[in-house]
Design goal:
The chain is an all-alpha fold. It has helices at 8-37, 42-54. The longest helix is centred in the middle third of the chain and has 30 residues, at 8-37.
Length: 55
């Protein structure tokens, strides 16, 4: 197998994209799941504010 030279900056951008996707998925599943399963939506607004503060 040929030893290919990797572009470090491209690897960093790919890593950031993966982390961004992970953060978005965590936010979506937490926020939407809260409203689908919770009887009391007051807790959902607190979770939403906390997640907005993180990201």
């Amino acid at each position: 197998m040929e030893n290919k030279k990797r572009i470090r900056s491209l690897d960093i951008l790919r890593g950031l994209a993966i982390l961004g996707t992970l953060g978005t998925n965590i936010w979506l599943f937490t926020y939407l799941g809260c409203f689908l399963q919770a009887e009391n939506t007051e807790n959902c607004s607190e979770i939403y504010r906390d997640l907005q503060a993180l990201f």
